[in-house]
Design a protein that fits this description.
The chain is α+β, with helices and mostly antiparallel strands. The chain is built from 10 helices and 4 strands. Helix 3 crosses helix 4 and helix 8 packs across helix 10.
Length: 268
């Protein structure tokens, strides 16, 4: 969410109920045209964007964030493409759920620290998360429009966020490995024996090559390092799903979904 946005094209039509919002002509006046990114400095416009439906609001903020990092496309052009993509993905999920006769579950969001989860031991049936790809992306800068909207202190967040702590690249890498070891240890603690943890992680070999002064092709990627860290704390590697990343070739080319399973206790 809020990552670098490549040019988006979708063959799927946009639902009719979203057409007015995409065009910036919401009849309720809740949405202002995204070609003016200075809305972040106005409390009145804060209220406007907060009243927009979540899918549209996220697309708007993504387009503003992208426009701050690149002049390749205007934010209103990006906004339409991003929202079309969101609508297409949402439709595919709905169609898949209908085909499999699945019912939407209930969720409760909590703010916390993955290095110290507010959950009881052996209380969770499954874990799915995508940790920062070490220092491959400055997530505070990348998601600044979203974070400002939520009232976050960006400087304070940068000092605490996994993957951003430290000054030099080596310091950031060492802090990242230590933090991820704590995260994985917490995953083991809260998972029930025999249950699974799925991790989406980028290889990040390009940046790691700079840390170790090696050819990126010869560096052990974050995917392999996560498997090694996980197995050291009691998560057995089951399998991986590889995929090529589109639009981030200068940062990284591949990412993996790692499926891990907590060891069963002898008594289970």
């Amino acid at each position: 969410m809020g990552g670098p946005v490549a040019e988006v094209n979708s063959e799927d039509p946009v639902p009719s109920e979203r057409q007015d919002l995409i065009a910036g002509t919401d009849p309720n006046g809740a949405y202002s045209h995204p070609s003016i990114p200075c809305f972040l400095g106005s409390s009145a416009e804060f209220s406007n964007i907060l009243s927009v439906p979540g899918e549209t609001r996220l697309a708007y903020l993504d387009s503003v964030g992208f426009a701050e990092r690149s002049s390749r496309q205007k934010p209103n052009v990006q906004f339409r493409g991003i929202l079309e993509k969101y609508a297409a993905v949402t439709r595919r999920i709905q169609n898949g759920m209908a085909a499999l006769d699945l019912v939407t579950g209930h969720a409760q969001a909590q703010r916390g620290d993955a290095r110290c989860l507010p959950l009881a031991a052996s209380s969770i049936d499954g874990i799915l998360f995508s940790p920062p790809y070490s220092f491959a992306v400055d997530y505070v800068e990348n998601d600044a429009p979203h974070l400002r909207l939520m009232g976050a202190n960006l400087d304070e967040l940068r000092e605490r966020m996994v993957g951003l702590r430290g000054r030099s690249l080596r310091e950031k890498f060492d802090a990242y490995i230590k933090d991820m070891q704590q995260v994985l240890t917490e995953c083991v603690r809260v998972l029930r024996p025999g249950r699974c943890c799925a991790i989406v992680i980028g290889t990040n070999r390009n940046q790691l090559g700079k840390v170790f002064d090696q050819d990126p092709a010869e560096v052990e990627g974050l995917d392999l390092q996560m498997i090694r860290l996980a197995e050291a704390v009691g998560l057995n590697f089951v399998r991986r799903f590889e995929r090529r990343i589109v639009g981030l070739a200068n940062t990284m080319r591949d990412e993996d979904i790692l499926l891990l399973r907590k060891e069963c206790s002898r008594s289970s």
